[in-house]
Write a structure and sequence with these properties.
By secondary structure, this protein is α/β, with parallel strands linked by helices. It has a single domain, classed as TIM Barrel, CATH 3.20.20.140. The chain contains 18 helices and eight strands. An eight-stranded parallel β-sheet has the order 1-2-3-4-5-6-7-8. Strand 4, helix 11 and strand 5 form a beta-alpha-beta unit. Helix 10 packs parallel to helix 11 and helix 17 packs antiparallel against helix 18. It starts with 6 loop residues before the first helix and ends in a 6-residue tail after the last helix. About 45% of the residues are buried. The model has no long low-confidence stretch (mean pLDDT about 95).
């Protein structure tokens, strides 16, 4: 077992973050600065004050957790701000040993009269590429002693929205006001994936995946089959928030109707009591078969421990998290932050939580961290990805050896 006080080892080990939201991961000083520049009113104007009133270590419910996005989205409505927070997020990751991460964001939340979807994606890509150029110029990376830093962009569609979500959605709802809202939401996802593929292909940007985020319960993933079918036909990798606030059926829809390569959260995979389909008679068997299907096809679950603890009142401690059952079922999993600001966490902290709560042996820790690289939507050819993963494994083994960490 790796002890919690082995913080330096965990910091040095190469890591990934495949599930991290840009608008949930700002630095508080940056939020305050951008709010002043854009005349956005904050409830407090100090880091201490915001941590006490908005960005707390614990929340009473999901509504409190999501409240902070009201402020972060409001300051991210220009290209300069998007580029700045993208670079800073990359920097925060690199400083704790994250060598590859995929930042996800919903461009439609940031579009306004001065900023279209193409420009929002360009701004995020500029921040990431500036970080790549700066970090990869370090001697230890240039020499090949350490693996380089890489990053990709996952474009998020919204499971649901209203006209109050952003200026874009206000105009979109108004334009389609005579159509059922369910159709309007579905069409917005279709529009977004067409834009993502076009921007990726026309400008060679590192758009590596498509996601479906937002309120899950009451808004089934299967409605968005058309958007995901387009992503599938255009070789855009796919992940879906599923099994976070709804049961196993949501995960089944994601991997069958939406061709999901990975699942965001997937917490309720092992929750037969949340199955709502009355045609499923043997719920335990359904869950067992679904877990087997996911395991057999190496569909990776993006696990966000701290975030789940904060948004699921039924969880009274980390030891109750279904991550234990995922480990026992040998499911491919990777540890992620979800929102570094909202959840007040880092990848290193998530790893330390998992190691100490679930008694993860050294070899399993290695597999867990390497899965992140193997199951990433790496922005390169398959051959380049294989070479990159091999470089990461070699570096991991050197660091582990220095600390006497045996994976046998």
């Amino acid at each position: 077992m790796i002890a919690l006080d082995d913080a330096e080892l965990i910091r040095l080990l190469p890591k990934t973050d495949l599930h991290v939201h840009l608008d949930g991961s700002l630095r508080i000083p940056t939020l305050i600065d951008l709010a002043k520049r854009h005349d956005v009113e904050l409830p407090e104007w100090t880091e201490k004050g915001l941590k006490e009133t908005v960005f707390r270590s614990s929340y009473r419910n999901l509504g409190e957790y999501l409240h902070g996005f009201k402020y972060t989205c409001a300051v991210l409505r220009d290209a300069e701000s998007l580029e700045r927070v993208s670079f800073e997020l990359a920097e925060d990751n690199f400083q704790e040993g994250v060598r590859y991460f995929e930042v996800r964001f919903a461009p439609q939340l940031h579009v306004n009269a001065r900023l279209d979807i193409t420009e929002t994606i360009h701004a995020v890509a500029r921040g990431l590429r500036r970080a790549e150029a700066q970090f990869n110029a370090r001697p230890e990376i240039v020499s090949g002693a350490e693996p380089p830093y890489r990053a990709g962009i996952i474009v998020c569609a919204m499971r649901m929205f209203t006209d109050g979500f952003s200026p874009y959605f206000k105009d979109y709802v108004g334009l389609h006001r005579f159509r059922p809202m369910r159709e309007v939401i579905r069409q917005a996802a279709v529009d977004l994936v067409h834009a993502a593929v076009r921007v990726r292909d026309d400008y060679n940007l590192p758009i590596v995946g498509f996601d479906l985020a937002g309120q899950e319960n009451g808004y089934p993933a299967g409605v968005h089959w058309e958007a995901y079918d387009y992503a599938h036909r255009n070789f855009l990798k796919k992940t879906v928030h599923a099994g976070e606030a709804f049961g196993p059926e949501s995960i089944f829809q994601a991997i069958t109707r939406l061709h999901a390569d990975r699942i965001g959260h997937g917490y309720h995979l092992f929750s037969p009591g949340r199955i709502q389909d009355h045609d499923i008679q043997d719920r335990e068997k359904y869950v067992a078969n679904l877990a087997q299907y996911i395991s057999d096809r190496r569909i990776t679950i993006e696990v966000c421990l701290t975030s789940n603890l904060q948004t699921m009142p039924e969880l009274t401690g980390i030891e109750e998290h279904n991550f234990r059952q995922m480990l026992d079922a040998r499911i491919s999993t990777t540890l992620c932050t979800d929102n570094r600001l909202i959840s007040d966490t880092t990848v290193s902290r998530e790893i330390q939580l998992a190691v100490n709560a679930f008694d993860i042996p050294a070899r399993r820790l290695k597999n867990l961290l390497i899965y992140g690289f193997k199951r990433s939507f790496y922005p390169g050819t398959y051959g380049e990805k294989r070479a990159y993963v091999r470089h990461v494994i070699d570096y991991y083994e050197r660091v582990a050896s220095q600390f006497g960490l045996q994976d046998a």
